[in-house]
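HUMAN: Mind sharing a backbone?

ASSISTANT:
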Amino acid sequence: MKSKEEKKKLFKKLENLATEKRNSSTLEIDLASAGEIARLINAEDQKVAHQVEKKLDVIADVIELVSDAFQMGGRLLYFGAGTSGRLGVLDAAECPPTFGVSPEKVEGFIAGGKDAMYVAQEGAEDSEEIGAQAVDGANVAPPDVVCGLAASGRTPYVHGAIKEASRRGCKTILVTTVPADQIELDVDYLIDVPVGPEVIMGSTRMKSGTAQKMVLNMITTGAMIRQGKIYENVMVDLMLTNEKLVERAKRILMIFSDVDYDTAETLLDQTGGHVKTALLMALGNMGVNEAKNLLSENGGFVRKALLNINK
């Protein structure tokens, strides 16, 4: 239980956070029409991409970091609370069907556990110890990479997770939406995207959430591209977990080769639904085993494999 003096210090810190300021552009939003509300929110959202743009260099460094970790058998692990935590869980959950990786490759941890995904567990974020325990429970070790997500940059749960990960020798990242000078935590890579005051004071599900989602999209998508999960600009390592994805896989084969629908279906059946192998079979006029070996020899990159067919 915090003393009154400790609570006052916390109050002062919160008061000075950029995410807790009032937005001078939306002071009369409570009087606005529905159309004006939409315009005001949209105008503020447009500022987010420009702030993310300023951090592309460090985002690129993180893409390489995560790709290298994947190459060595490591994982990307997100730790966050509230909206930030949910965004981490969301990004992690979308990686297996999109890029054909195991669910363990990218994992999201949220303060309060699974229940916090649906019902706010506000007190769960206030303990560094719980964050450290989450890292311990996930058996985090190099070459794993731990990414903390905290709009305010000060969430105790996130601080605990990052400190424990660092203690274990793992590389650490913090994605936040306040300026770097408001961060009191040592990390290897700081992605600070200061989006300024929210449309509604303190509602970090808005611009802060949008900024974090944009950054996470770049990190995982970029790392997966570097791992050969994409051919040209098409995801060709998707897992065929539902009818829509099965049909998308057939369409991919038909787009890149001259096979018809039935042939695409046959190729996918022969490869157990492995789109990259089926694609090499179609483009290189080869059997399953030859396509698999060629892919393996070229690190899973379809384009490299095609260039080496006749060498």
User: Anything to note?
Assistant: The mean pLDDT is 92. Strands lie at 76-80, 106-110, 145-149, 171-176, 189-192, 230-231, 234-235. The chain has twelve helices and seven strands. The domain at 231-307 is CATH 1.10.8.1080 (Helicase, Ruva Protein; domain 3).
